[in-house]
């Protein structure tokens, strides 16, 4: 299975990502890009159409968490230990939001990630993120109980 396929499979089993319409746009040794399409579900202010910050937090937590598949030999469930997001400015209504994340340090117990949320260009971020994720290992059955390959 390629890194792209592993990332897409991981994303496909997360129900909230299905509801929000998130898709893997890129996944390789350099990191992960996930797209969050604009929709009424993520609007925080119905008058202006501005996206709620919680939707961006969800995108970036998911993106950082799934970016681990770009760096680990085997798929592992890695729950969030800590996530910090610095918002630069609000997202422009009507446009999708992209999340980019990469792992910059992998230890036996913790994975350290960083990334940005953006719309047009990665160099013009909506938000910066750093996150840490606990390594739990692939499990005794290689995560077969995680149902990878189902719910696509």
TrEMBL record:
<dbReference type="InterPro" id="IPR003736">
    <property type="entry name" value="PAAI_dom"/>
</dbReference>
<feature type="domain" description="Thioesterase">
    <location>
        <begin position="49"/>
        <end position="124"/>
    </location>
</feature>
<protein>
    <submittedName>
        <fullName>PaaI family thioesterase</fullName>
        <ecNumber>3.1.2.-</ecNumber>
    </submittedName>
</protein>
<dbReference type="InterPro" id="IPR006683">
    <property type="entry name" value="Thioestr_dom"/>
</dbReference>
<dbReference type="Pfam" id="PF03061">
    <property type="entry name" value="4HBT"/>
</dbReference>
<dbReference type="GO" id="GO:0016787">
    <property type="term" value="F:hydrolase activity"/>
</dbReference>
<dbReference type="InterPro" id="IPR029069">
    <property type="entry name" value="HotDog_dom_sf"/>
</dbReference>
<keyword id="KW-0378">Hydrolase</keyword>
């Amino acid at each position: 299975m390629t890194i792209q396929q592993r990332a897409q499979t991981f994303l496909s089993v997360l129900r909230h990502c299905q509801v929000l319409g998130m898709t893997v746009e890129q996944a390789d040794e350099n990191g992960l890009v996930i797209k969050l399409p604009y929709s009424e579900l993520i609007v925080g202010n119905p008058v202006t159409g501005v996206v709620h910050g919680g939707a961006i937090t969800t995108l970036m937590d998911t993106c950082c968490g799934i970016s681990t598949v770009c760096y680990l030999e085997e798929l592992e469930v890695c729950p969030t230990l800590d996530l910090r997001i610095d918002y630069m400015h609000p997202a422009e209504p009507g446009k999708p939001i992209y999340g980019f994340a990469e792992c910059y340090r992998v230890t036996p117990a913790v994975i350290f990630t960083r990334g940005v949320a953006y719309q047009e260009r990665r160099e013009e971020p909506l938000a910066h993120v750093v996150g840490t994720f606990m390594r739990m290992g692939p499990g005794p059955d290689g995560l077969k109980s995680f149902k990878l390959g189902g719910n696509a």
